[in-house]
Structures are given as structure tokens and as C-alpha cells.
Amino acid sequence: xxxxxxxxxxxxxxxxxxxxxxxxxxxxxxxxxxxxxxxxxxxxxxxxxxxxxxxxxxxxxxxxxxxxxxxxxxxxxxxxxxxxxxxxxxxxxxxxxxxxxxxxxxxxxxxxxxxxxxxxxxxxxxxxxxxxxxxxxxxxxxxxxxxxxxxxxxxxxxxxxxxxxxxxxxxxxxxxxxxxxxxxxxxxxxxxxxxxxxxxxxxxxxxxxxxxxxxxxxxxxxxxxxxxxxxxxxxxxxxxxxxxxxxxxxxxxxxxxxxxxxxxxxxxxxxxxxxxxxxxxxxxxxxxxxxxxxxxxxxxxxxxxxxxxxxxxxxxxxxxxxxxxxxxxxxxxxxxx
Length: 337
What we know:
Number of strands: 2
Order of helices and strands: HHEEHHHHHHHHHHHHHHH
Mean pLDDT: 84
Largest sheet: 2 strands, antiparallel
Radius of gyration: 23 Å
Helix content: 55-70%
Shape: elongated
Structural class: mainly alpha
Distance between the termini: 34 Å
Oligomer: single chain
Strand content: under 5%
Strand order of the largest sheet: 1-2
């Protein structure tokens, strides 16, 4: 595998926070314009990756007379939904017992895809599954679309239909660098740095396991689009070390710089690690219950007719039993299960 420093990952897919804001805003505004023009945002995808917009509906004024115009998702709601499905990627990969590398690759594909598109244009459940399938391919962990679809009760044809638009949106840059490999390298280096004895190895195993959990959280933030994988791994190890207190982490960082000819200073590295910690600290992982309102809005944008059907079902359910509706909380149909 090529070195990260010379990779397309570093050259094309590491951004500034302002870059991410502008890309999210552009995709959101495009979807809103599509909604205003066509009355829906769902884009039909052919297997070759070609796209077609919905058939134009009544103009906004006529539509408003007969039906309430679908309300678009705002940027915050789109972010909320992306995080929800990134966590679903972790859950699905865990259920299939895929290696961490596949999980990380799928999440990075998913993040890159939605730098180009709004969730109102392509439903994240469909893109999530296609990203997992694509990650399995590129990491040579061969799972057919049929196996993947059957395992989570989804139509495998939908996975295949989205494959080309995902690859096109990634610019066919399919090699990604995940923090998990860097994590292993740093832990091995720490063992040498501390001149670890055999009876001390368990401490580093525990440190490694906790750091993996920290990386899992980091992958749900924007940090993988802002920082190189080595820094993501170091930030996770620093947080894990605060729990296990295995080594003097500042001293270890200084040792790294003493052995390398870096163009950056240790203060710049520390600033990056602090910034990564900030992204993790402000991470808010939505539950299925949290997603209900956003999911309803997304459905009405993708297919406005579904909004009326939902209201009719809710009205019948409420009429049937107020008590039951108060006590029972059904999860929205956003789960991949």
C-alpha cells in the first residue's frame, strides 16, 4: 500500500472546517431548490450511475392549496441523520464480524459521499449499505450483495444500483487510511519506548482496546475529514492513557519528534490532538427515538405522498387507543435491521 503522505487521501480528502461547512451548505441548498422545483427530492439511479430527477409536479402555489409543501431538512438535521447511519455502519459491520478496517473504510466512503450530496437526494440507509459492500470489495473481504442484503433484510439490488454513483462521488479514490493501523503501530512503539517486560504487556493490551473504542467514537465525528489517521490514533491513545495511566504521554510525544524530522512542532501536534478531542467531546449520537421527527421530514421530501399516508395511519392509531399510543413507542423505519 502506498504511503499516506503521497496518497489521494491526503491530497484530496483532508479539509478545513470551513470547507466542510461550505460543502454541506451547497448540498443542502441544491436539495431545497430541487424540492421547490419538483415537489420531491428523490433521485432515481440507474446501475451505470446516471441520475434522473423527479417528474415536475404542480408549482409551489398550486401545491400549497391542496397539500402542505414538504419542509426540507436543515443542515443540522442532515448532520444528525448522517451520524445516526454512521453508527449503523458500525453496528452492521459488528454483526457481520467484519474487521475494523472495513468498518472505517465504509464510514469514510459514507462521509465523502455526503460531501457531494444531501441526504434528501439519496437516502442514507441505501448509501450506508452500498458503502459497506464497496469497503468489503476494496479490502478483499468478499461478501456478495445478496449475502449482505439477506443478512440485514434489505433488497440487494438497491445496493448494486447505488454502487456506481458511490464510486463516482468518491472520484474512484478507493484507498483510504484508517486510524486502526496507526493505532497498532503506536502501541508497538510504546512498548519499545517503555522497554516493556512480559508481565506488563497486559497493560498495553488494555490501552489498545480502550483506544479502539475511542477511535470508534472519533470516526462518527468530522475529524477523519480534517486530520490524518496518525493524529486520530494518537488522540485516541492519549484519551485511553488518561484512563489506564500506562506511560508519560507528553514524554512519548517528545520522543517521537526526537526520532523524526518533522516539519511541524510538538505544540502544533498537541493543538491538533486537542482539536480532535473537542470533536469527540461534542459528539451527540442520536437514538432511533431522536430520529423520528427528522425521519418523517426526510420521507416527505423524498416522497411527499408518504406524508399523507403516515398521517392517516397515525390518526387511525390514535383513534384506536389513546392509551396504547401513549405507552407504546415504535422506532421509525430508519434502522437497517
